[in-house]
Amino acid sequence: MATIQDVAKRAQVGVATVSRVLNDSGYVKAETKEKIQRAIKELNYTPNAVARNLYHRKTGIAALLVPEISHPYFAEFIDAAETALYSYGYQCMICNTWREQNYEAHYLELLKQQRVDGIITGVHTLDIDRYRLIDRPIVALDRQLGDNIPCVAVNHEKGGRMAAEALIRSGCRKVLQVTGQSHVSTPSNRRHEIFEQVMHENGIECINYISKWNRFSYTDFRDAALEIAEKYTDIDGFFATDMTAAALIHTLYEKGRRCPQDFSVVAYDGTYVSSLPYPSLTTIVQPVSELASSCVDLLMKLVRGEKPETMNIRLDVEYRQGSSTL
Amino acid sequence: MATIQDVAKRAQVGVATVSRVLNDSGYVKAETKEKIQRAIKELNYTPNAVARNLYHRKTGIAALLVPEISHPYFAEFIDAAETALYSYGYQCMICNTWREQNYEAHYLELLKQQRVDGIITGVHTLDIDRYRLIDRPIVALDRQLGDNIPCVAVNHEKGGRMAAEALIRSGCRKVLQVTGQSHVSTPSNRRHEIFEQVMHENGIECINYISKWNRFSYTDFRDAALEIAEKYTDIDGFFATDMTAAALIHTLYEKGRRCPQDFSVVAYDGTYVSSLPYPSLTTIVQPVSELASSCVDLLMKLVRGEKPETMNIRLDVEYRQGSSTL
DNA sequence: CCGTTATATGGAACCCATGCCATATGAAAA
DNA sequence: TTTTCATATGGCATGGGTTCCATATAACGG
Questions:
Q1: Contact partners, residue A139, CB within 8 Å, separation at least 6
Q2: Cα–Cα dist A152/A143, whole Å
Q3: What are the pLDDT digits (tens) for B167-207?
Q4: Prediction pTM value
Q5: Which of A13, A214, A278, A291 has its CA at a distance of 20 to 30 angstroms from the CA of residue A299?
Q6: How far is B53 from chain A (nearest CA, A)?
Q7: CATH class label, B156-286
Q8: Which residue in B50, B218, B280 is closest to A50 by CB distance?
Q9: Measured between CA atoms, how close is A268 to chain B, in angstroms?
Q10: Looking at the domain that runs over A61-154+289-316, which CATH code has it been given?
Q11: Among all strands, which nt has the closest C1' to A6 (CA)?
């Protein structure tokens, strides 16, 4: 590919003058400018951003670490984050960690090498300490990564409470919630603690089913739903994320149990998945787009060297009534 | 951040020697090596990939152009592509074009500047000519971009035929297919031509409904489904992509029409969405992961400067029986 | 003991831009 | 006429690595 030297040679000027034209800075005679622009076109020249980035010590790239891109929650998150980054003139790199420490660690190292200007991490497997050594701006989604890394999340306490209350209103007497198997304590796990607490306060038995999958795959959800259907025949209320909730409804339907007549379901997340099953899901909705743009806004602040007003952003959840509860 | 100069100074050696240690090349005394590694650790030094990339004239980055990240088809595609790229030691940049020429053009320019090593494009809005000037390796998903850009797609003719035959087997007498509004002729549009053709061969009336949305949003799909439900009351067979098919089933159900008793539906794509509605969808499945890894394999070949054996890769589609047809 | 080779290290050009500084010209001000 | 300033342009250090080449010492065979 042509370089600025080639352009300078062809236009018979110095590289500095070409640079001035490229960046529209300093004095350049109109005539000279034309000559240079002609040379640029003739050579199909495009400035090398790598060289620019080296000089300016910034890349214009931000990275997103997610456990799984095709999970609807993260797909929507990435979608919104990319759009927000674009509006800041930033490009977006994605890193799929598959919930594995190795991937996460390797990617962090890679991103540090690539000198990305900032990182938004939505993964939870790696130790906090590993993040300390990455001296780039970082924003965490749904995870507390120490004192100097801001955390963006929704109000999961409220979400867990809303879910519990919806099932109680729906008349449930014995409920089950499907929880993740996360080792680290994340804000999002709080919803399960609150959910259980509210149930106990109301004298309702609450079973915690710990999911075993670590891939987003409908067949895994179905398998879990089948196991639940066989093991717990007397549950009349479920709390799970969108996809698992959908799998539960379908699986139990095949066992002859109708939702919402025989049992109720409250889902969590509120991705488009919640409108697909029949009956449609009553869901606690996370404002994914707002989460993403908050992360990006915050990250851009860090990139500019500004101090964020708060290290903990908590957005509100929303209750969306579907047909899976009474 | 520390540079190789800092490391050299601290270890009291030349930068060349440090470089040798970093790249494990040439001769370095064990003692010196240790000294250098100590300095690296003490300074928390990480080599600057931007500088490396500049010298080597390659970035180790590939870019994915997609119309919309959160669309399940593309989310799964990106997911698989990222994984494949990772196995080649490549990082993945994503660009959301929202089906707009401006975004697509702007991103192409940006990617050229950033000197990404390769581009996989899954978007169709921009003129072919614009791709000629991007002298980087490109692979196109589902689109013919001239003679020297390879195209990866599924056998859409077969897909369209299978869909038609499924509806015929299901006893349909008047069918409707929901098509995109694409201006450019893409391999994927072929399925609609074949579908219509097969219907006519069998003396079955076929209506083409051209979708108006250009965002992936369930409410848009529902609106379209509502319009269809009201305008065409005598249709007993539908052909549409997963999400639209789901919306049709739900909307018609609310109008008192049961699937598959009163009408049949064949969906296209075969993302996880097809397992969510009730009844589950009979679908023509595109092997999205294989499409993605084919694109990546092909792109890596181009990056290495090899000539691909074929400029047209066609993968097979699969018929998956659900409960939305008889 | 000397020429040859393996080992060990550093200097400097190179990758491709940017932008400071030096230099040169023409015009306006003094 | 001389000083001053706006205009115009080019040279070169800089950013942070890599690698070729030059140089130096130690080990080895003859």
A1: A118, A119, A120, A121, A149, A150, A151, A152, A295, A298, A299, A302
A2: 8
A3: 999 999 999 999 987 767 789 989 999 999 999 999 999 99
A4: 0.95
A5: A214
A6: 7
A7: alpha beta
A8: B50
A9: 16
A10: 3.40.50.2300
A11: C16
